[in-house]
Design goal:
alpha+beta; 434 Repressor (Amino-terminal Domain); Beta-Lactamase; 2 domains
Length: 263
Amino acid sequence: MEQISEFAQLVTYYRHERGMSQGQLAHATRLSRTYIYHLETGQRANPSSQVIQNIVRALELTDNERQRLFESYTALTGQFLDQEQIESILLDMGELASLLVHNTSYPAHSLDKLWYVPSLNEAAITLFEVQDYIERNERLHMLDLLFNPQRRRLFHGWENLVRRLVSDFQYHTSRVTHLPEYKTLWRQLRESSEFRRISSSIYQRGRPSPSFVFRMQHSQLGRITLRTATTVFTGVNNYSMVSYLPGDQQTLAIYRMHRWQIS
């Protein structure tokens, strides 16, 4: 039996270290589970540089781990990888998401792979009245806002809204459920009896639509109708940017008054 290459062994080792199954790695890298199996058993002896980039992102390799993987790849294939070029591709998508958030006139915020909110613009802070979170420098999670008992009454049709968002959350986090931080977050969310009730009755039916309409009550703006627009940044450290657009003429007038859109 032919000896398995160091490259194949390293992929397996780093995957196990991250607590990922072959299926989870396949999902995270947009490859098939069969491809990952063949890669780890040495049946794929000449993977492309794009595959390596996907694996590096998926496993979140450190500099030393990445260097070791690259050297083993060169030993296996005879091909050299430009580490600086790959590192430039593996940029922090969170920085890009934040930049876009703060340079849009609409209320907008970013979401990381676990749906924490790393950045909001001033319009979003005003719209969702989360200034107190900002002042306390609290780490804000999207679902916390909805399941907070004091805030729940602000959303018209709350039940339908949270069902939609919990379903979206489960879909978009399905490939990071192996992460310790996901497991910690899931335990925290399940401390809410309402979250337990709703999450246990959600059944996934494919990729959710990036846009939907909902209504909420603002302490100063009154009743407003909002339509979401989601931009997804694809990669392992997924980030998305969610913008909130006017959903009716009354809300459009409010937006224009606050200059939250280009007239």
